[in-house]
Amino acid sequence: MVTSGASAAPKANLWTYWDNADPQSTIQIDHSSWQLLLSIYVHENPDRINRVSYKNFSNQHTLLLDSYIQELSAISPTHLKKNSQLAYWINLYNALTVQLVLSYPRKKSIMKMKSSFFSIGPWDDELLTIEGKAVTLNDIEHRILRPIWRDHRLHFALNCASIGCPNLSKTAYTSSNAQALLQKAQSNYLNHPRGLSFVNNKLLLSSIFKWYQVDFSEDEKGLKAYLAAELPQKAQRILSSNDSIAYDYDWDLNEQKSK
């Protein structure tokens, strides 16, 4: 992730160690603990933004989250099949993000959740060790997922605990459902105003499309073409927008407010 004032995200810079898989692997990862937590604490709202009841996490379920993350860190992902790796890294990223928020209960934005005064957010903090290597959230996103899979839909699957971010899925990723969930996440975000909208006929997009434009297209013309292809009902309006694109992002915590 990047700050609201940044014009570009970290580049996809392959960490070659993780670009290994075992196509013959029979290892099955149990994501049921993560699924249980998602089912209880992630809420679909009428505005179609999923929010999380961070403040309602019980001690038992906080420990369950910690245990799930530790179980994943004890697995050797390089010994998994490629499709199992994809689900592994997405779930781990999102689970670590929820764990971070729970460890900073008074903060209203993930931008304030950091180990160093001089850092911007927690994305470069070393959060756990996998196969003897310290790993950060930025490692998972920019050095593993983006360069290995080269799938722009990943930006709709990774959740940064913010209102402007694509929804945290209520369904855990698995080796069998990952492609369907990625497609659903893309559709949901593109069809939501925080992903794409028009203000006085000017195209307003999530800053995700500015930070990661290289993952979607070479330039804004190509970006519009991608959006038009995914949103045929809005294609004419997207393509006829001659003004430069405006971008916006809401870093407020995606917290479910108590009623």
Features:
259 residues; mainly alpha; three-stranded mixed sheet; two-stranded antiparallel ribbon
Describe this structure as you would to a colleague:
This protein has 259 residues and is mainly alpha-helical. It has one domain (1-259). It contains nine helices and seven strands. It has helices at residues 32-41, 59-74, 82-103, 137-149, 178-190, 208-211, 213-216, 220-230, 235-239, and strands spanning 42-43, 51-52, 128-130, 133-135, 196-199, 202-206, 246-248. The strands form three sheets. A three-stranded mixed β-sheet has the order 5-6-7. It has a two-stranded antiparallel ribbon with strand order 1-2. Strands 3-4 form a two-stranded antiparallel sheet. Strand 3 (128-130) and strand 4 form a beta hairpin. The longest helix has 22 residues, at 82-103.
Strand line-up of the largest beta sheet: 5-6-7
Instruction: Report the sheet with the most strands, covering strand number, pairing sense and barrel closure.
Output: 3 strands, mixed
Q: How many helical stretches?
A: 9
Tally of structural domains: 1
Mean pLDDT: 94
Q: What overall form do the CA principal axes indicate?
A: globular
H and E order: HEEHHEEHHEEHHHHE
Rg measurement, Å: 18 Å
> What structural class is derived from the secondary structure elements?
mainly alpha
Distance between the termini: 31 Å
Summarize the structure.
With about 260 residues, the chain is mainly α. The protein is about 40% helix and about 10% strand. Strands 5-6-7 form a 3-stranded mixed sheet. Strands 1-2 form a two-stranded antiparallel sheet.
